Amino acid sequence: MTAAAPAPGYRGPARRGVPGATVAAMTGHEFADLIDAQGFDFFTGVPCSLAEGVIAALERRPSDRPRPYVPAVREDIAIGVAAGSWLGGRLPAVIMQNSGLGTSANALVSLSRLYRLPALLLVTWRGFEGKDAPEHIVMGEITRPLLDLMGVPHRVLARGSERADLAWAHAETLRSSQPVALLLPPRVLEADAPAPAVPRRGTPRAPVATAPPSAVPSSLSRFDALSAAVGVLGREPVIHANGYICRESFAVRDRPENFYMIGSMGLASSIGLGLALSRPERRAVVFDGDGNLLMNLGILPMVGGGPAIGRGRPVNFVHVAFDNGVYGSTGGQVSPSRGVGLAAVAAACGYARAESVDSAAGVERALRAAIGADGPSFILVRVNDEERPAPRIPYAPEEIRDRFRRALGSA
Q1: CB atoms within 10 A of CB 214
Q2: Architecture field, domain 222-408
Q3: Contact at 8 Å (CB) between 152 and 179?
Q4: Closest Cα to residue 129, out of 192, 75, 183, 48?
Q5: pTM (2 d.p.)
Q6: CA 329 remoteness from chain centre
Q7: Taking Cα atoms as reference points, which of 319, 297, 334 lies closest to residue 217?
Q8: I need a labelling partner for 322 at 20 to 30 A (CA). Which of 64, 86, 225, 231 fits?
Q9: What's residue 9's pLDDT?
């Protein structure tokens, strides 16, 4: 196996106190301040030891500062959270190891690039120059070619040019309206002192009791359930899962406050979380599907586990999952949700409210209550597998993006 060539612009592994070092390594705290100075104001990601100082600096911030760091359980979820924050008016940065590029490829291509959503990717470069543990070597070699294949502009962060590199990233992500990446090789940043433990804030309330899972089909169609839900809505923004949920909701009533997902199955709830965190003054609603949610179950503890990271749960987050027990868009294959109480799972993950309904009246009651009370709230709507003919979404992705942001006042 051939070792990867040194990255252009990288000045080598010089560190503070090492003879011959011409440029001292910047601390994570100093680098976080530079990111702030460039206008990035929303942070999420998956940890890597090469970026531990930056993450520690972000986590140490007072909870009342409007720049939260949201720990994600997967890199593609972090991309979704960042997307929602940008729709809400923030400028996000996502921290990940380069191994996470593989995990987040679909999200980057069919969400971030499809809708043209700006973001800074801070990607640590494990396997740099072929020197690392065996599991990092191949990814180290293909990191830059992979970014090229996905069409993500990138630079290698270098000592002494951190300010210029971040300025380029800021200008380029806004100019191109898409993600850009800064690669962080080993030792380009210096680790800060370990962060103190973050105290838990608040006591989670007992969730609403939920019905046990049932394989008995519902008499309620998803179209009728969506009609009932849409009838309750005022100006609440709604992130729609891809597939027939988008199309049927569009057929019920098209709204500028609707963000229709075309690709990136599973990420509607992540986008909704980012939106809720970036716009705490507004209720953020997600119309999810059982297949979408099962693909992204890790979002549930991210929503309900807020007290664990010292920031509290997003009380303005309303999560509605329409469960028909099948993968409708791909031919009606059976979904594992038939034997799982998804509302009970949400309750166990810390949602303040979680319940299951199977009638139009139940949908109206539950959604009206969720919009009017503090959450986060989870509503499982059991529907049958009937599908009404519904048109595809007629808008281009960028048109969906722009009218949604105008409706939110984020444009």
Answers
A1: 14
A2: 3-Layer(aba) Sandwich (3.40)
A3: yes
A4: 183
A5: 0.86
A6: 23
A7: 334
A8: 86
A9: 40
